[in-house]
Design a protein that fits this description.
about 200 residues; Immunoglobulin-like; mainly beta; 3-stranded antiparallel beta sheet; 6-stranded mixed beta sheet
């Protein structure tokens, strides 16, 4: 069956994390996607939460503003990505796509995915220390990586120690990289890993 939508029946997400609700089809010549609608049924509210048509993308339920997106440049991929999952996001989500055929007739298909949101036991970040005293020649490329495990998700910050004993914030990524090391890059660097 052409233009069938594919996706799982259940997606499990972690509270405060993100989740992708897959919904995809194989594009067919002579059939143009007319509309895409994602609807939700859960305790808080029900109705259309996202709509895409010829005039643009619309997030229709206020509790999803700035938290949901659908790929724009991936023909056939109309998956819904949800950020900052809350317990209230549990429910049934339906992806409905309508196509217009070359003879102007319309074809519609839909699939429903159940979203389950779980809280995981919180654990403090554990950092695996690297060896001290890294020597790298000037002009070389190198990086320092902060490796930590824990739950919920971890945020990272890299600092360079200053002569006054303070830390100069350099990056908010797990990796601190240099493309072209200079002698002035010598110093003491440290990473902080943090979660709630």
């Amino acid at each position: 069956a052409f233009l069938d939508l594919a996706g799982p029946s259940v997606v499990k997400g972690v509270w405060k994390g993100s989740a992708t609700l897959p919904c995809a089809y194989v594009p067919v010549k002579d059939f143009v996607q007319e509309t895409l609608t994602w609807t939700v049924v859960h305790d808080q509210s029900s109705g259309a939460l996202f709509r895409r048509d010829g005039s643009g993308d619309y997030i229709l339920l206020s509790e999803y503003r700035d938290r949901v997106s659908v790929p724009k440049d991936a023909p056939g991929n109309v998956s819904l990505h949800i950020l900052k999952l809350g317990m209230s996001d549990r429910g049934s989500y339906t992806c409905q796509v309508t196509w217009r055929a070359s003879n102007n007739s319309l074809i519609a298909r839909e699939i429903t995915t159940k979203v389950e949101v779980f809280k995981v036991a919180a654990t403090k970040p554990i950092i695996r220390a690297g060896k001290l005293g890294l020597n790298v020649p000037a002009g070389a490329r190198t990086s320092l990586t902060c490796e930590a495990t824990g739950s919920p998700p971890i945020s990272y910050r890299w600092f360079r120690s200053t002569p006054e004993g303070k830390g100069l914030l350099l990056s908010r990524q797990a990796e601190l990289a240099w493309d072209n090391l200079r002698p002035s890059d010598s110093g003491m660097y440290y990473c902080e890993a943090e979660n709630r």
